[in-house]
Write a structure and sequence with these properties.
binds manganese (II) ion, 394 residues, globular, single chain, binds alpha-D-psicofuranose, alpha/beta, 11% strand, 10 strands
Length: 394
């Protein structure tokens, strides 16, 4: 492929690339061992929208922000008008709505699969209100992370909990409007460590099938066992028309919430290749980031995330899939692998930079963030509100 053809292909791919940022990635969050407070972190929903808007302005690829209901809309659907006003003001739309059925004290032994009917009803009411919120702010997706499970063998009926979970998800599905989707996220561990009610993609898929046609599976890249072949899961879900979206992040050990591609960029490339290989069925798949940076500056890390995702997307777009298919059919292993890896090793940065310039975006978004003084100004305005032991970023 000559340079002109490369440029054309990458420009087209980048024009269609969008990734959603999580509101919680802009605020001070921590690990379960502690928080290192950043003076520039967002302290309100307005500041989260302002930060997301700034990342979108710099990268041109992050026009929506995922909202977490309890953290962002503490008064539930009553907060929807304020959310819409902020979206208007900062030029980023509300994206997926994330109910929170893991934080309240009642959920110690579970939410929608808690043995107490009263607690199950409370969790279901929250999920249904999340659908109402999505309707009120024009969001298409309700992303459900059901954290339920148990930590010791024999302490809960796994089978009973399957039924309770199915029942609740069915009711949420029934409340969706025709344009909405329910995305079912899975995770094999944490906060429970013996079993989780939606432990892997097979369970999420079964729940989604059972719930109805608007239910799809959400793949969080940090929610797998070591060594699991995530791109194969992606290929299967695409094949079945059941891939709803991603929560992107990277990990070395568990659900580490590290910056996308910081540990294993080849894995992101392989996932993107599967998506680009099945463009038709991948059309509605939502790309979302689920990262909270405890050490890196939050704005810098989010810009770095979007830029990295764009660069790897460009590299995956370059794979000559027709030529690859010929080599695969001939079982010409080394040539096929070299073609595939050739695109992975290709330095996309100069062409991505050209694309940015052609689209009126800063050629180097990280440098532009630095030059803008945005983070210093945020620190000045928010510092007092973020004050606490160990503030580590100025
Ligand atoms: C859980 O680990 C998770 O991946 C879910 O998506 C939550 O909504 C998110 O992280 C934030 O806690
Ligand atoms: Mn997630």
């Amino acid at each position: 492929m000559n340079n002109e053809a490369q440029r054309e292909r990458v420009f087209k791919a980048l024009d269609g690339f969008r990734i959603e940022l999580p509101s919680w990635g802009f605020a001070n969050t921590g690990t379960r061992f502690g928080k290192f407070l950043q003076t520039a972190a967002a302290t309100s929903l307005e500041e989260k929208f302002a930060d997301a808007g700034q990342v979108n302005r710099l990268t041109g690829a992050a026009p929506t922000v995922a909202l977490h209901v309890l953290w962002d809309l503490p008064n539930g659907v009553k907060d929807a008008p304020a959310v819409k006003a902020l979206a208007e003001k900062y030029g980023v739309r509300p994206g997926s709505i994330n109910p929170n059925i893991f934080q309240d004290q009642e959920y110690k032994y579970g939410s929608i699969a808690n043995p107490s009917a009263e607690i199950r009803a409370k969790a279901l009411a929250h999920l249904l209100e999340s659908v109402e919120i999505a309707t009120a702010v024009n969001s298409a997706d309700i992303s459900i992370w059901d954290a339920d499970g148990s930590s010791y063998p024999g302490t809960q009926s796994i089978r009973r909990r399957i039924e309770w979970t199915e029942e609740a998800l069915g009711k949420v599905h029934a409340a969706l409007s025709p344009a909405q989707r329910m995305l079912v996220e899975y995770k094999p561990f944490e906060p429970f460590f013996y079993h989780t009610d939606i432990g892997d993609w097979g369970m999420a898929l079964a729940y989604a099938y059972k719930a109805g046609p608007q239910a799809k599976v959400l793949v969080d890249t940090g929610h797998h066992y070591q060594g699991q072949n995530i791109e194969q899961i992606v290929a299967w879900l695409l094949h079945l028309g059941m891939l709803g979206g991603f929560h992107f992040n990277d990990r070395r050990y568990a659900d580490d919430d590290l910056t996308i591609a910081s540990i294993d960029p080849y894995q992101v490339f392989r996932i993107f290749h599967e998506i680009l290989s099945d463009a038709e069925r991948a059309a509605g798949v939502a790309f979302m980031v689920d990262q909270s940076h405890n050490l890196k500056g939050k704005m810098e890390a989010m810009v770095q995330t979007v830029v990295t995702a764009q660069e790897i997307w460009a590299r995956a777009a370059l794979v000559d899939r027709e030529a690859l298919a010929v080599l695969q059919n001939k079982c010409d292993l080394v040539s096929a692998e070299e073609l595939f890896r050739g695109s992975f090793f290709w330095d996309a940065r100069p062409v991505v930079r050209e694309w940015r310039e052609a689209r009126g975006l800063p050629a180097d978004p990280l440098a532009a963030l630095k030059a803008s003084g945005y983070v210093e100004e945020a620190a000045r305005q928010r510092g007092a509100r973020n004050a606490g032991s160990g503030a580590s970023y100025a």
